Amino acid sequence: MNGSIEILANGRPLHVAPGMTVAAALLNAGIAGFRTSVAGEPRGPLCGMGICQECRVTINDRLQERSCLVLVEAGMRIETDTMSRRV
Amino acid sequence: MFDADLKESDRYAIAVIGAGPAGIAAATVAAESGQRVILIDECPAPGGQIWRHAAQRSREGAARRWVTRLERSTATVRTGAAVIDIRRLGDANFQLHTVRQGVGSTLRASRVVLATGARELFLPFPGWTLPGVIGVGAAQALLKSGVSVRDQRVVIAGSGPLLFPVAAALRRAGARLQLVAEQAESSAVFRFGLGLWAQPAVLAQAIRYRAGFLKSPYRTGTWIKAAEGKSSLQRVTMTNGEKLWTIECDLLCAAFGLVPNAELARLAGCRLQDGFVAIDKHQETSIEGVYAAGEPTGIGGVDLALAEGSLAGYSAAGRSDEAREWVLRCEEQRGYVAKLTSGFQLRPELKQLAAAETVVCRCEDVRLGAINPEWTMRQAKLYTRAGMGPCQGRVCGAALQHLYGWTPEVPHAPVEPVPVSALL
């Protein structure tokens, strides 16, 4: 592990190991609900491999990114639950 | 979207989709045969699920050998990119549309190898949508991508040989395994164990895996009944058909085997047989110039995937001498696989787990009670929006196929949700 990098999750700074996915960084920070379903239920990662779309979050203003497929990068801004918040 | 002016650099002899073992082998041997090859995968690095993120860690022997060989070959590797469309052009070439970080691009290839892997079969049960309920392979994937499970209480409920390595990996990562539940009866697991005697290396590996979680209970004939919790998982109810009991836990890994990722094959018009992509003995599908290798042609594991990928790569590159040799190796591997996977049949009780209010389609929150078993998948889509969400029926389609015997719909492009800007 080459030190750690800082990312922002819902505005909160997190120090994470480079090489991990955004999904892993969020789960390790105790964030279980990544999005809110159309009926208002909290949802988090299910398949871990890019199939189920349950781990979608906003990454650097790109909506609906599958967090299990994206690696953390220094300065990355991540917002969970963005679709329900805009309503 | 599909008529972009193509640069010469966007033209390839062979495009390989999916960079797991099958795709890595296909791309590597085709490039080594002098073909201009591109290998495309959604993940950040080649390796697929089994060798996931292998680039950052000390890899097991075969993974290291193959990834190194791929890197030394002339194959272009495009990671983080999803293939959202494949179509045959008038001149018999194939046009592929890919999207990477919201940006679309188009490429052309004379031949295509589909090595799109498999996903887990998820069956709905009360509480399965709670955060903290994940798949079995999902646990492996999330561990490899950096998730910490230290001191977390974990229950595994599923079926098949995958339970063993996942249980061992969770234990090694510091999880407190409360129960590993195999839904099949002990006789099936026993037959699986007997089948392993023919392959001492695999048997030794299975024993190492079991030793890796010896202190945790492993029960056959036991399955998940329900998960509960407020905003995330707090406890599960298990059953062996006679009694119910509750286990407090933080993480439940529940999935019931693997189903092939056949969306691109179906979009390309390839014929399926019993749910898998039909191939001839050289891995060519019913569409001339389109080959398939690995799990889409039948769940067979890493050794068969490497053999099929090598065969597909040589076949697509027109190297018939090498291909002939790999035809035999594939046949040999398939013999082993058939022995190992028989017996883990899913019990009928698993079709009865979901209640009327249980969500079946997680994207659109369609509940079981809204779905008429007499319908087709198309009717369910039209009447309830089941299968119409971002996963495009990859989760609920497979579940409904298992529950009601429905045939999943033929996918439409784009086969992944993409921003409109990527299509312009």
Secondary structure topology:
The complex is a heterodimer of chains A (87) and B (424).
Chain A: E1 5-9, E2 12-16, H1 22-28, E3 35-36, E4 42-43, E5 56-59, E6 62-66, E7 77-79, H2 82-86
Parallel strand pairs in A: 1-7
Antiparallel strand pairs in A: 1-2, 3-4, 5-6, 5-7
Chain B: E1 11-17, H1 21-32, E2 37-40, H2 61-72, E3 76-78, E4 81-88, E5 94-100, E6 103-114, E7 118-120, E8 133-134, H3 136-144, E9 153-158, H4 163-172, E10 176-182, H5 186-196, H6 200-211, E11 218-219, E12 223-228, E13 235-239, E14 244-248, E15 251-255, E16 258-260, H7 263-267, E17 272-273, E18 276-277, E19 290-292, H8 301-316, H9 320-341, E20 359-361, E21 366-367, H10 377-384, H11 396-404
Parallel strand pairs in B: 1-2, 1-6, 2-3, 6-19, 8-15, 9-10, 9-15, 10-11
Antiparallel strand pairs in B: 4-5, 5-6, 7-16, 12-13, 13-14, 17-18, 20-21
**Percent helix range of chain B:** 25-40%
Helical residues, percent of chain A: 10-25%
Give the biggest beta sheet of chain A.
Answer: 5 strands, mixed
Radius of gyration of chain A: 12 Å
Shape of chain B: globular
Quaternary state of the chains:
heterodimer
**Biggest interface and which pair forms it?**
A-B, 38 and 45 residues
Task: Report the portion of residues of chain A in β strands.
Answer: 25-35%
The succession of helices and strands of chain A, N to C, reads EEHEEEEEH
